[in-house]
Design brief:
By secondary structure, the protein is α/β, with parallel strands linked by helices. It contains 13 helices and 13 strands. The radius of gyration is 21 Å and the shape is globular.
């Protein structure tokens, strides 16, 4: 059967060096390719990126567009068949209001040219400005489908757009990243700490708790910079204070192989927690991000720590309780996989109706 080619324009925080976003892109494209096998469509992707040297997939149906080439971007959007926000929390103003304006402008440009908008397995918010909420409300009222990655994002989307017909609750795309990875039997000699910048006082608490843990366990402690540009300084600094190794990754395969060597994860970022879950690694997190808190609801937040409650013994105490806290992880993984599969079902249904959108 001859397939109809569809031009997909993909928006996200791609090419910024954060492996969580790059893993999301990898998974989103895999989902589209799986859908292509069961629909009369083939897909050609234009991916908006920050770094011109970035390369996610060396395949003929994907082109990379540098985010500062605004006229090229606008032309690609105008000629696309579908504009997709794939993974992450693209629309929020906690990091930067300018970033929200930039991406909102591109989405509104797509609406001007009557390009269908799909938010696929995304987060939403937070918004601290009234103007931000008004802009996002304008966009959400005109999208074809919003598949949220968590309940909180879905609730916020419903609140802003005033209806729920186009809003579904799926799961973060990183849930399925490991599926096609060849599992190899490794030992579990490492406890990995995925860090990000924090205040000097908090860093001191963190180092004290880490040193205590290191003195109490036989496993090796390592510090990981998951977003190299932003995490490099604190990762190298903490590793020096604790006298341990620190590392960063250069490929998805390297990340997945590394997780097979972990007996536990402590993280300040969401996606190491998701990977840990799906690869059966107990994880704990500092509750510094609403996205992490939302995901930790699956374990009744027993694996969360606040800065206020962080003491010298905290990491060791959690490490000792890891098997008990994660005793139901297999059942939770089944639920996450069901949401993962449901997300693709909705995507399939979306393309079944696509020719009726214009």
């Amino acid at each position: 059967m001859r397939k109809t080619e569809k031009k997909i324009f993909l928006l996200g925080y791609y090419g910024f060096g954060n492996w969580g976003d790059e893993l999301s892109l990898h998974s989103v494209i895999n989902d589209f390719e799986r859908i292509s096998q069961d629909t009369p469509y083939s897909f050609v992707y234009s991916v908006l990126i920050q770094n011109q040297s970035f390369s996610s997939r060396s395949v003929s149906n994907l082109s990379l567009i540098f985010r500062k080439k605004i006229f090229t971007i606008l032309n690609k959007i105008a000629k696309s068949d579908l504009v997709v926000v794939g993974g992450g929390s693209l629309l929020q103003d906690s990091t930067s209001f300018r970033s929200l304006l930039y991406y909102s402008f591109l989405l509104i440009w797509a609406l001007i040219f009557r390009r269908p908008l799909l938010f696929y397995r995304c987060g939403l918010g937070p918004f601290y400005r009234v103007l931000s909420q008004k802009i996002v409300t304008f966009i959400l009222k005109r999208i074809k489908l919003f598949i949220a990655r968590d309940q909180e994002s879905a609730d916020l989307a419903k609140k802003l757009c005033g209806h729920s017909n186009s809003i579904k609750i799926g799961i973060d795309p990183v849930v399925s990243v490991h599926e096609n990875f060849l599992n190899t039997s490794y030992g579990k000699p490492i406890v990995g700490f995925f860090v990000r910048e924090c205040s000097f006082a908090h860093e001191g608490l963190f180092v004290d708790a880490l040193k205590y843990l290191q003195a109490k366990i036989s496993e090796r402690v390592e510090i990981i910079a998951f977003h190299l540009e932003y995490d490099y300084n604190i990762a190298s600094r903490i590793a020096h204070q604790v006298d341990c190794q620190w590392k960063f990754f250069q490929s998805i395969e390297e990340i997945l192989s590394y997780f097979q060597q972990l007996t536990a994860v402590f993280t300040m970022r969401l996606h190491p927690a998701i990977l840990s879950t799906m690869m059966d690694v107990p994880w704990f997190a500092l509750n510094i991000d609403p996205k992490i808190e939302s995901f930790a609801n699956w374990w009744e937040k027993k694996n969360l720590v606040t800065w206020q409650n962080l003491s010298q013994e905290t990491f060791f105490r959690l490490f000792e309780q890891r098997e008990n806290i994660f005793k139901n992880n297999d059942e939770l993984k089944k639920q996450l996989r069901r949401l993962d599969e449901q997300s693709r079902i909705w995507l399939h249904e979306f393309f079944d109706q696509m020719d009726h959108f214009r």
